[in-house]
Amino acid sequence: xxxxxxxxxxxxxxxxxxxxxxxxxxxxxxxxxxxxxxxxxxxxxxxxxxxxxxxxxxxxxxxxxxxxxxxxx
Length: 73
Description:
single chain; little secondary structure; two-stranded antiparallel ribbon
């Protein structure tokens, strides 16, 4: 079983995320609530933050961070 959110525009369903299923499947459609059109936005794509977040040049990914030491005990 796989669940995916979609928007129904009165004639068709538009998924808000990619659907990884390529075969024919039986589906059940449940209408949840009306959508506020101003709240509808395109889904995020993988890599959309690429190049926007930088780590420190001297960061060691293999050394435990002090802030998380109590959780690692």
